[in-house]
Structures are given as structure tokens and as C-alpha cells.
Design goal:
The complex is a heterodimer.
Chain A (H helix, E strand, L loop, with lengths): L2 E6 L2 E6 L4 H7 L23 E4 L6 E2 L10 E3 L3 H16 L15 H8 L23 E3 L9 H9 L6 E3 L6 E3 L16 H5 L5 E3 L3 H9 L4 E6 L20 H10 L4 E4 H21 L6 E2 L4 H10 L13 H17 L6 E7 L3 H6 L5 E2 L2 E2 L3 E4 H11 L20 H4 L6 H15 L17 E8 L2 E9 L1 H12 L7 E5 L17 H17 L9 H11 L5 H6 L11
Parallel strand pairs in A: 1-5, 10-11, 10-13, 12-19, 13-16, 18-19
Antiparallel strand pairs in A: 1-2, 3-4, 3-5, 6-9, 7-8, 14-15, 17-18
Helix pairs in contact in A: 8-10, 8-14
Chain B lengths: L2 H12 L6 H10 L8 H11 L3 H10 L11 E6 L2 H5 L2 H12 L12 E6 L11 E3 L2 E3 L4 H15 L1
Parallel strand pairs in B: 1-2
Antiparallel strand pairs in B: 1-3, 3-4
Classes of the chains: A alpha/beta, B alpha+beta.
């Protein structure tokens, strides 16, 4: 590629010819402010906060969407630029509900940070904030349009990355808003509650439904036995909320914190991830041996479940009937664990800590209960856990690392990798191979199934059978595979589909920012957890074995069907 | 044929690609006497063209030539650009409001009339002017408005 020399604030820099002013400036260590710009998204150029002066030009140029030209002399820090940026910011603020101190994003808001950086003081413009009702219509996601700055990042996440299109712009000009069609509530449109919109929102216009108070109340109630489970993706991301490097593993500190604030048992969702592998692996073999519907599709990701229920109900028969690990956990706590500890299930509260906003709605699904007891009672996200830690004033950095409680704290590395795209498939293959052949699988790392690429596939010889598998993440990618299945062109036995790009580590409840760069670090950490595990195959988990001996009897057995499997609903007409 | 099959027919005729969306929306609107595109139609178009429902709605709500809300059988579009404005378009608005009992943006209860502002459509020589279902009426005053409303009411019956 040809190199071009441009001058940024008097400093010459040589860059490739398709570079933007923004990128060229970053090479000279000048960080031009941005707002609608997101590193993983298309350039929008809508907010104009990144404007710069270009010598010989009367008007400003937006740095994010202006390509450099040979000999361009760019000035990023003149009186004119600073004043204009301030005016743009004041115009945005005039329309923004600046209730910062009670805002969900207080302290982690791109608009707030930029106000400080641009040295915004008093705003002499009249406020004309549109205080529309806050949409709290569903258990997962809250929308507050009075905070929206109309950057359009959420639309790209929803419409282009996920291919769901629950929200879009409505109207034109100063009446333009971002909303579902007919400005309906999210519960009345086909929203999968993945929360990818939350992760890219620069302000507090979209956030998770907060369930923190319910958790504190449960812990305060001495008549209740409060049990908590932590999903695999939480432990590799929480640290970010406390200034730790992305990819820091803080499992032991989380356990220690949860015990300190009064949970009666601190367990691990990785345990039921192992259990899922046994049930799902057996379901796959059953389908293969009995001419069942193939390819079988994974069912752990509740955003994905909503997607197929809304948009591809004709393929519901391909979904594994296994509940997700979160729900299996709840079901076992209120049956097996209740029996073992002699506690009435009505006195048990199951709390989940998940990287996911869709999990909140999954827990409330009607069929996710046994004997009238809902499997899971309260779901909080990784971000809410971070808020609880801050609220408790316990310094997580100083906490000693502790281990999970027995028995549901014992898990394998195969359970851990559920948190990354490709993980469920890798874990399943490790087990299916050994169960079918009776031989030890020597090379258990399926490297070609790892990483954030949207499509991965592998062919694994299992005895006499060649198992074809595919892995995808992000719903737009899932759509491609679903269309292939519909056309009868998907020659796979088993497909793993995760709703969120990158898998659960990129879930809608994870710390913000959650860029691809950060997601890759989280994935690395997930495989580190796997590598450091004593056991790395689900079927070797001793507690899973005991569970079958003492309670479930056999995979896909009667008890399993009652507690660990579920059914789905055609929601295409909703 | 019903609205559903008529809408599908439009898509079949114009094309199933996303670049045809606006053309389809314009024709779909013509199917309704109330000068708008129904939710059912938007859903059909979204499904046929494989564009998300919210995006189809968003685009329909963007253009002033398209409407997602029910309008009257007669859509009274009153010019509020400069020449009509200084020729007392305001009095014309008031006269329509008085005769119809509705305000700008509203529809009469019998569904016959609705009122909205429009930008200059080039009838400045006969300002103040209005456009009603593509027909232009100019040099309006309070009396002429009264007569016009009466004529249209008779025409409708």
C-alpha cells in the first residue's frame, strides 16, 4: 500500500493511503475526541465531535470519516476547533437528560468523560429534554430515551450485527428517535434481549433491568437458604470493572466476596455445564442412532432461543431439548440439593450471576419450573455484581481467593470453556469421543473451533462415525446456517450457536467497554481456566457421576426429562 | 382482493430487493383511502423484502409523502412557506379549523378530513394555497374555505 505523508499539529506522519484523519492523528499520539465512533462498528460521522481544521479549507472536517490526502495539514487543537467542539457538545447536552449522579452509567459514560475532557462548564443553551416514559416493560432491558444522543450504535448492533432489528430510527430531523416500530415497548416487539445494544451505548440510554435490591433482600432474610451460581464468563471479565487488565481471572475473589456477604452456598455454573454436556452429548448420540432430527442445535443461549422462536419456528425440532446450565442448576438445587440438605424448596432462593441480560427473561419462562418452584429466582449480570461489590465497600483487590462449596463447586475445564464461542462444541466432542469409543482422546484442544470468527467447522472421527460440526456466534451468522438447514444443505450433525459475538464473554451483561480486543483477552483467560483445571472432560467430573448414581440414574432418563429438559414455543406471530 | 394480497401483488410486481422499498411503500399507501400504510402492510413488506420490521417502519416514518398514521379521505395540505405565510395562510388554517372542528395533525371523527402543513408546492401566484388530494386550490379566504369544505362534503356523499 502507498504511504502518504500528512502533518498533524506540525508533526509529520507517514500513513497508508486509506487512513482517516482520526487514525493518522492517533499515530502521532493525538487522541481526537469521538462519540458515535466505535472501534468494532462502521463509521457513522453523525455526532461531529471529532472535527478538525484542515489548512486551505473553510469548513471543518470530521476526522472519523475523512480520508487523508497527500500533504494534508491537519490542526486538531486550535481555538476554533476547541470552541466548535464545545458548541457541538453543548447542543448535544441541551437535548440530554443530564441526571448524572443517579444514572446507571455514572463514572463510565463516554459523554460525561468527554465533557470533562472538553472542559465544558455552564451550558448557556436552553434545555429541551424529551422526558418520554422509560420502557421497563420486560425483565431484561430498560430504555430511557431522555438520555439517548442518537449516535446509532445500538441500531448497528441490533440490525446489522445481530440481524434482529428490534429498534431503528423513527421520524426525521429533530423529531428523530431510536425506538421499536410504532414506538412500542420492547416486550411487544421481536427483541431477543441479548443486550448488545447496551454494550455499545456510550451513555445511559439502554441498560439492564436492575435486580440488585432483590439479592440484598434475600440475603437479609434469615429464613431463606440463598444459593448462588456464577457463569463461566463472569470470572474473566469482572476485574475490568475494578481497573484490572482485561483477561484477569478473579474466580477466587468472587467466591470469597459472595461468601462474605452471606450466601449460604457458593456454587459454580460450570458444574451444570458439565452436566449439560452429558445430557446433550447423549441426546446427540440418540439422534444419530435413531434417525432423529439433525443437525442438532445447542440450546444454552437464551437470546438465541428467542431468535429461533421468533424467526425460524419451523426449525425448533432441531434444538436440543436440554435446558441451559443456569436452569439445570436451579432445577437441581430445588430438588436434589433440597432433599440432601433437608430444606424445603420454598425456603430456597437461587441467584445467578450471568454475563447475560437474556438470562433474566429465561429464568422467568413459564416452563422453567418444577412442582411450582421456579428453577432460578433472581438473575444479576456481571455489571450488577460489580455494583454490589462497590456498594458493599469490600475491596475486591484485597480479598483472598477462596474455593467454591461442595458439591456443585466441582467442575472441569470443559465446563469453563462454555463461556467462549466454540466451547460447548469442544467440551461435547471431548466427552462424545470417549463415551462412544471407550478410548482416551489424546488431543483434547480443538483449536480450529476457537476464536471470535463467525463461522468455524470441524470433522471429528468418532469410532466408525465421522461427526461434522459447526460453530457460529452472533445472530446474523446464525441466520446463514439456519437458511442452509432450511435448504437441506447443512451437512452437520451438531451446531453450536451463541447469540452474542464472541460467545458469553461478549454477553450483554458484561463490563463496558466490551470491544473485540477486550473479548479476545477474555477468551484467552477462559482457555487458561480450562488449562489449569485438574479435570478437563465433563464425564470425568466425580460429582456428575455421583449425581447420576444417587438421583438422576441415567442421562435422558425420566428424572432428567422432568428437571433438565424443556420445550420451545413458536413466537413468530408475537 | 383484500389488502394483504394486493400488497403482496405490489411486491411481486416491483421486486423483492431492498432498493425497491420506497417504491413499494408509495404504491402500498395508494391502496388505502385513508392515505396511510397499515401495520399489516408494513409487516408483509418487511417479510417479503427481508428487511426488519422496525427498519421498514423507520423509513416509512421518515418521508413526509408516506404516512404510518391514518389520515382523512381528504388530506388538506396547507402551505406554510414564505409567500403563503405573508398572504395570511394563518387565516386559512383557522378557517379550516373552524369549519372542520379539528386542528393541524388531526382527523375528523367521520374520517373524512385531515389537516397538515406542507412546504411550497409552487402555487405562489395564487397564495394562500392548499393542496387536497393532489388538487390545488388558491386565493383562499374564510368564505372560500367554507364553500370548499361544503363542496367536498357533498362530493363525499
Amino acid at each position: 500500500m502507498d504511504k502518504i505523508i500528512v502533518t498533524v499539529d506540525g508533526q509529520k506522519v507517514s500513513v497508508e493511503s486509506n487512513t482517516t484523519i482520526l487514525e493518522a492523528a492517533r499515530k502521532t499520539n493525538v487522541n481526537i475526541p469521538t462519540l458515535c465512533y466505535h472501534p468494532d462498528q462502521n463509521i457513522k460521522g453523525s455526532c461531529r465531535i471529532c472535527i478538525v481544521e484542515v489548512e486551505g479549507q473553510n469548513s471543518f472536517s470530521a476526522a472519523c470519516c475523512t480520508p487523508i490526502r497527500e500533504g494534508m495539514k491537519i490542526k486538531t487543537n486550535t481555538m476554533k476547533v476547541r470552541e466548535a467542539r464545545k458548541m457541538i457538545m453543548k447542543l448535544i447536552l441541551a437535548n440530554h437528560n443530564s441526571e448524572c449522579i443517579s444514572c446507571k452509567r455514572n463514572g463510565n459514560c463516554e459523554l460525561q468523560t468527554l465533557c470533562e475532557e472538553l472542559n465544558i462548564e455552564e451550558n448557556d443553551l436552553d434545555k429541551f429534554t424529551n422526558l418520554l416514559p422509560i420502557d421497563q416493560s420486560n425483565p431484561s432491558i430498560v430504555r430511557d430515551q431522555s438520555k439517548c444522543i442518537k449516535c446509532g450504535r445500538c441500531i448497528e448492533a441490533c440490525d446489522e450485527i445481530q440481524g434482529v432489528g428490534a429498534i431503528y430510527t423513527v421520524n426525521r430531523g429533530h423529531e428523530m428517535r431510536i425506538a421499536p416500530a410504532y414506538e412500542k415497548n420492547l416486550c411487544d416487539v421481536q427483541c431477543v434481549y441479548c443486550g448488545q445494544c447496551i454494550n455499545v451505548c456510550p451513555v445511559g440510554a439502554i441498560y439492564e433491568k436492575d435486580n440488585i435490591e432483590e439479592v440484598w433482600r434475600a440475603l437479609e432474610d434469615s429464613n431463606k437458604h440463598v444459593v448462588v451460581q456464577i457463569a463461566p464468563a463472569v470470572r474473566v471479565a469482572l476485574g475490568e470493572a475494578f481497573g484490572m487488565k482485561p483477561g484477569s481471572i478473579v474466580t477466587g475473589k468472587i467466591v470469597s466476596f459472595l461468601r462474605k456477604i452471606g450466601f449460604d452456598s457458593v456454587f459454580d455454573t460450570n458444574f451444570t455445564a458439565d452436566l449439560t454436556i452429558i445430557e446433550e452429548g447423549n441426546e446427540l448420540l440418540h439422534r444419530i442412532q435413531n434417525n432423529g432430527k439433525l443437525p442438532m442445535l445447542t440450546s444454552c443461549s437464551p437470546g438465541w432461543i428467542r431468535y429461533i422462536e421468533f424467526f425460524y419456528p419451523e426449525l425448533l425440532g432441531h434444538l436440543s431439548t436440554c435446558k441451559s446450565p443456569q436452569q439445570m442448576f436451579g432445577a437441581l438445587i430445588k430438588s436434589y440439593h433440597a432433599q440432601k440438605t433437608d430444606i424445603n424448596p420454598s425456603d430456597i432462593i437461587v441467584v445467578s450471576i450471568m454475563p447475560c441480560t437474556a438470562k433474566k427473561t429465561e429464568a422467568k419462562r413459564e416452563e422453567m419450573q418444577d412442582n411450582g418452584y421456579q428453577d432460578v429466582d433472581i438473575v444479576i449480570t456481571t455489571r450488577e455484581l460489580a455494583k454490589m461489590i462497590k456498594e458493599s465497600r469490600i475491596r475486591i483487590e484485597e480479598l483472598d481467593e477462596e474455593g467454591f462449596d461442595d458439591p456443585f463447586g466441582i467442575s472441569t475445564g470443559a465446563g469453563a470453556v462454555f463461556g467462549a464461542t466454540g466451547g460447548v462444541m469442544e467440551a461435547a466432542l471431548r466427552t462424545v469421543y470417549e463415551v462412544v469409543t471407550g478410548n482416551e482422546l489424546e488431543k483434547i484442544d480443538f483449536e480450529n473451533l476457537r476464536g471470535i470468527s463467525g463461522f468455524k467447522e470441524a470433522n471429528v472421527p468418532v469410532g466408525e462415525l465421522n461427526i461434522n460440526v459447526a460453530v457460529t456466534n452472533g445472530l446474523k451468522n446464525a441466520k446463514i446456517l439456519l437458511d442452509l438447514i432450511k435448504e437441506g444443505k447443512a451437512d452437520y450433525h451438531f451446531i453450536e450457536i451463541m447469540c452474542c459475538p464472541g460467545g458469553c464473554i461478549g454477553g450483554g451483561g458484561q463490563p463496558i467497554p466490551s470491544t473485540n480486543e477486550i473479548k479476545e483477552k477474555r477468551i484467552e483467560a477462559i482457555y487458561k481456566v480450562d488449562l489449569l483445571s485438574e479435570l478437563r472432560k465433563s464425564h470425568l467430573n466425580p460429582v456428575v457421576k455421583t449425581l447420576y448414581e444417587e438421583f438422576l440414574q441415567q442421562p435422558l432418563g425420566e428424572k432428567s426429562h422432568q428437571l433438565l429438559h424443556t420445550h420451545y414455543t413458536d413466537r413468530s406471530k408475537e | 382482493m383484500d389488502l394483504k394480497s394486493n400488497t403482496i401483488e405490489i411486491v411481486e410486481r416491483i421486486g423483492y430487493t431492498s432498493d425497491k422499498l420506497i417504491e413499494i411503500l408509495i404504491e402500498a399507501q395508494l391502496l388505502n383511502e385513508e392515505h396511510y400504510i397499515t401495520e399489516e402492510q408494513l409487516k408483509i413488506i418487511s417479510k417479503e423484502l427481508k428487511i426488519s420490521f422496525s427498519k421498514v417502519y423507520g423509513i416509512a416514518s421518515f418521508y413526509s409523502m408516506l404516512s404510518t398514521k391514518k389520515k382523512g379521505k381528504y388530506v388538506i395540505q396547507i402551505c406554510n412557506s414564505g409567500p403563503c405565510y405573508i398572504n395570511k395562510a394563518k387565516n386559512v388554517v383557522e378557517a379550516f379549523e373552524k369549519n372542520l372542528g379539528i386542528r393541524i395533525g388531526e382527523v375528523t371523527t367521520d374520517g373524512l378530513f385531515s389537516m397538515e402543513y406542507i412546504s411550497c408546492f409552487g402555487a405562489c401566484q395564487i397564495a394562500p394555497a392548499v393542496k387536497i388530494n393532489e388538487k390545488i386550490y388558491g386565493n383562499l379566504d374564510e368564505n372560500k374555505v367554507k364553500q370548499l369544505v361544503e363542496t367536498l362534503k357533498k362530493e363525499a356523499i
